[in-house]
Amino acid sequence: MTEANLNYVGSITIDEDLMELADLLPNEKVQIVNNNNGARLETYVITGPRGSGVICLNGAAARLVQPGDNVIIIAYSMMTDEQARSYKPKVVILDAANKPAQVLGEEIHATIM
């Protein structure tokens, strides 16, 4: 988490490069899990400046994170059983500077961030 902006309507701002890498869309609903304090919340994505590394929680949810917190951003999809059996999620792991460190086709047990 690079920023928390309380004085904003809502949402999470994510670097456009990271959005594309993770297949996140503008206005897509996401769940945010804060690994530092256990908080969980839902919001929607807005596009941040490309290449900036920004991940900023906006609005009232900003009270649940601090810059430097490690968060997990989860997007869900509805699909048929058949689609779900062949679906491969995309897991993007970032380094401390919010640059892509690893892109996985699925979450591996005991993956360390």
TrEMBL record:
Q: Where is the protein found, in the record's own terms?
A: Cytoplasm
One of its Pfam families is: Asp_decarbox
Q: Which GO terms describe its biological process?
A: alanine biosynthetic process; pantothenate biosynthetic process
A GO CC annotation recorded here is: cytosol
Co-factor requirement: pyruvate
**In the UniProt record, does the keyword Kinase occur?**
no
- Top-level EC class: lyase
**Xref: NCBIfam families:** panD
* Known role: Catalyzes the pyruvoyl-dependent decarboxylation of aspartate to produce beta-alanine.
> What name does this protein carry?
Aspartate 1-decarboxylase
User: Which organism is the protein's source?
Assistant: Paenibacillus taihuensis
List the lineage, top down: Bacteria, Bacillati, Bacillota, Bacilli, Bacillales
